[in-house]
Amino acid sequence: MPATSKNNRDKGILSNIDWVTLFIFVVLVSMGWMSVCGASYNLDEGTKLLDFSARSGMQLVWIFSSFVLGAIILYIDDRLIESLSYIIYIAFMVLLFVTPMLAHDIKGSLSWIKIGGFSIQPAEFAKFATAICVAKVVSSFNLDLSRWRDLFISAFLVLLPMVLIVMQKETGSALVYFAFFFMFYREGMVGSILFAGAAAVFYFVVGIRYADVPLWDILPISSGEFFVLAAIHLFVAGMMWVYTSLRKPFFQTLCFGMIAYVLAVLYAKYLIPFNVCWVQWGVLAATIVYLFYLAVRERLWSYALISMFALGSIGFFYSVNYVLNDVLQAHQRTRIRVLLGLEDDPKGAGYNVIQAKIAIGSGGLKGKGFLNGTQTKLKYVPEQDTDFIFCTVGEEQGFIGAAVVLLLFLFFILRLIHLAERQPLRFGRVYGYCVMSIFLFHLFINVGMVLGLTPVIGIPLPFFSYGGSSLWGFTILLFVFLKIDSARFRLKK
Asked: Does position 377 have pLDDT exceeding 90, yes or no?
């Protein structure tokens, strides 16, 4: 190897690292430590921020060790990390499988393994293992994620750790793996899959929230059922417009359905009341049959897929009540009903969110100042230094401080997208989007559940929530990407 090439490689470790991302990381971790101090500060014991028996002191240990861990990663050859992708993935899948057998029951969860005086959560590190393996598979075999076979292979790598984590009774950590589908979309997955996922959420929320709300007082039908069935019809018509070249069937399907719905509602309201949903079922059945007919006549597979979407939508919607009442656990069911406003449980499932809102609201514009938050100091908010750490930010730093934190995270996410897009190889780009998607999912869900916008599923806020496993897991994710990015100069030669 020429001497100049070797010198460039050695120099590249520091000169090619993205210092902007590294700076944001340090700022967020520092603000996170201040939030942990505020959330764990005890008025009776006074200021003991550097006491390593307290959470504020212990978090400093995790922060310092994460810096060391990040520095070590930067000095590891990125090609070695890539070559070990499969081994890392298999090792963590085995670890996830045996975790319930080794773990101690902590609040019903079997996800923590005790090692000496510490406990680790393998699920936090499995996100890195999954991201690096998916990136390796997608890039090595040049998978085309618009093909169902290639998408199934990639999705299997993501769904396997989800199943293993659910076995640990950690539903929140398992749901994080849905973030990988954002990367799949960037790499060629058809957008209809993301649309189907969004539609399923719509069916679930509307179907439950308005299940007992009548369309009109004189019509004994559910508003939720009526609007969901109408939405399915509109979705089907829209997909016919987007995914097929024949416009006439689109107008036929849309107009026929809308006219039938209007006539049925008017007849039921002013003449003889009856279940208007019968008409909707008939219209959807006719539409599905018509789509299959078009698929055979025009020899277009798109029509068959749209009809399968309609059948799947109907089946999913009518299974919502079964899933809610017979599949989900009691506490999960209660949290969903409280979130949708169907139950008022201020002393139970809704307590955390109510107290978090009070804490954030009490901060006002500028906040009460560092260590001056009353709601957090008096321990009104459960899990206020882990899952609900953002309420400490809102109370002590106010609206301005909370906005600054969110803007920093926004810039951080956008920076990760920029780094991913500039990768010369697909491996780096795929891994970068995996990292970005995981951080975005954690941020959206954590802040959303503190504000009462998303269900309380118990996932940490990156770099803020107390704990070594989460901080180390996020550090490994980020610094491996920074290392891959720093090697781009070598790959461009």
From this structure: no
